[in-house]
Amino acid sequence: MSNTNAMQQLDAVAARLGALRNGGGTGRSVTVLSDEARASTELLAALPPRYGEVLLNLLDRLESSALFSEESCSFSQKDLLDNLQVWADKARGQLVS
User: Fold this and answer.
1) Which domain holds residue 58?
2) Mean pLDDT for the stretch of residues 33-58
3) Is the pLDDT of residue 17 over 90?
4) Which pLDDT belongs to residue 8?
């Protein structure tokens, strides 16, 4: 099975994630990242099921953090973006192995 489409979806999610990590993000850019990641069905199908569970958990927390100021939210948006980057790196490792 070719992982070309899955890799393309991962590249797109990683690009949005990189933009958020580098420039900070608005609630709208978090929503776009989350929507795109959730719609990456070929990517999620190509990865072990646990990857999907972790991704959805991180996205839920990231969306919650975007609703509140950093001080009033129990989730650090920077930490969540860092964790999403770790997830993307590990997902890439799964796809190329």
Assistant:
1) 4-96
2) 96
3) yes
4) 96
Spatial neighbors of 18 by CB under 8 A, at least 6 apart, are 85
A 10 A CB-CB count for 45 gives: 12
Q: How far is CA 28 from CA 31, 62, 63, 66, 67, in A?
A: 5, 12, 10, 9, 10
* Total of domains in the chain: 1
CB atoms within 10 A of CB 92: 14
Residue 39 DSSP class = T
Residue 29 has pLDDT above 90, yes or no: no
Distance of CA 62 to the CA centre of its chain: 9
26 compared with 72, residue with greater pLDDT = 26
